[in-house]
Amino acid sequence: MTDTSAVVSVTALSKRFGSVTAVDSVDFEVRENTIYGLLGRNGAGKTTLMQLLTGQDFASSGSINVFGASPVENPDVLSQICFIKESQKYPDEFRAKHVFKSAPWFFTNWDAAFAEELIEEFNVPLNRPIKKLSRGQLSAVGVIVGLASRAPLTFFDEPYLGLDAVARQIFYDRLLADYSEHPRTVILSTHLIDEVSNLLEHVLVIDQGRIIIDEEADALRGSATTVAGTRAAVERFTAGRTLLHSESIGGLASVTIQGQLSAFERADAADSGLELLPVSLQQLIVRSTNTSTHDFQASA
Ligand SMILES: Nc1ncnc2c1ncn2[C@@H]1O[C@H](COP(=O)(O)OP(=O)(O)OP(=O)(O)O)[C@@H](O)[C@H]1O
C-alpha cells in the first residue's frame, strides 16, 4: 500500500551493469521528515540506488516516484533534492567561496547565514581553489552545502568520511539540531554505523542489491540480544531460536539471537546465570550481512 506521506516510492527497481545486478528488484518507501540510514557493505548497491533516486542514472526496470513523479530530467522534482557525494565535480576555476555563492541558484531554501556559521566551524578556506583543498576540507564543503541547502530530500553519500572525528561530530550535531528546527527527509549512507546510530530513525540495509532490512531504528535496536554464559546454559536457552552469531571458548559461549525476549525469558536467563547484552545497530547489521552467518546457521 502506498503511504501518502511517502516522498520516495520504489517498485521492482533494478539496475544492471552488464552482468552485474547492482540493484535487484527492490521495493520500498521513504517517509517525509525522517532521517534514514542506507547501510550495506562495499559494493552492496548504495551509490547506485542514490544515483537512481536522484535521476542521475536510468533504471534497467521498475519504477521510481519522488515527490509524485519520476526524477529523471524533471526540474520540479530535482529542485527539491540535494545529493552530496565525495566524488562531486566542480568547475576547474572554482574556489570554495564560489560553491557557496552559487548554491542559492540551485537550492531555494538556502540559508546563507547558516552556511557562514558552518564555514567558520569547519574552518573552510574560502579563497583557496577547490582543487587545492585537503580531503577533509573538500568533505566539509559538501557537508555545508547539504546542511545549508535545507532541501526537502537530502542525500549524503558518505561525503563526511574525509572529516576527522571532531568535524564528523560537528556534522552530526548540526544535522540533528537543524533537522529538529527544519524537518526534512535525509538519507545518509555510511559505514560508520555506530557513530550515526542515534541519528537514524529508519534503517534500510542493502545487501547484494536487495533490501534485506527496512525497519524503524528503535525496533531494530531491540531486535537482537547476545546471550553469554556457560556453553550448556547458552545452548539450552537459545535452542530453537534464530541465531545470528556464535562464539565459544572452552566451556563458555556467546550467542546472538534474533527476536525480542519476554520478561519470563529474561528471568529464566538470570536464573541460569546467563548474561543478556544489547546488540548495537552496527553489530546487528554486520551479523545480518556477513555471509559466514549463513554458514553458522546451517551448521548450528
Ligand atoms: N558503472 C558501472 N559499471 C559496472 N559496474 C558497476 C557500475 N557502477 C557500479 N557497479 C557495480 O555495482 C555494484 C554496486 O556498486 P555501488 O557503487 O552502488 O555500491 P556501494 O554500496 O555504494 O559500495 P561502497 O560502499 O563500496 O561505496 C558493485 O558491484 C559495483 O562494482
From TrEMBL:
Keywords: ATP-binding, Nucleotide-binding, Transport. Residues 8-233 form the ABC transporter domain. One of its GO terms (molecular function) is ATP binding. The keyword ATP-binding applies. InterPro entries: AAA+_ATPase, ABC_transporter-like_ATP-bd, ABC_Transporter_VariousFunc, P-loop_NTPase. It comes from the Bacteria. Gene3D superfamilies: P-loop containing nucleotide triphosphate hydrolases. PANTHER family: ABC TRANSPORTER ATP-BINDING PROTEIN ALBC-RELATED. This is ABC transporter ATP-binding protein. It comes from Microterricola pindariensis. The lineage of its organism: Bacteria, Bacillati, Actinomycetota, Actinomycetes, Micrococcales.
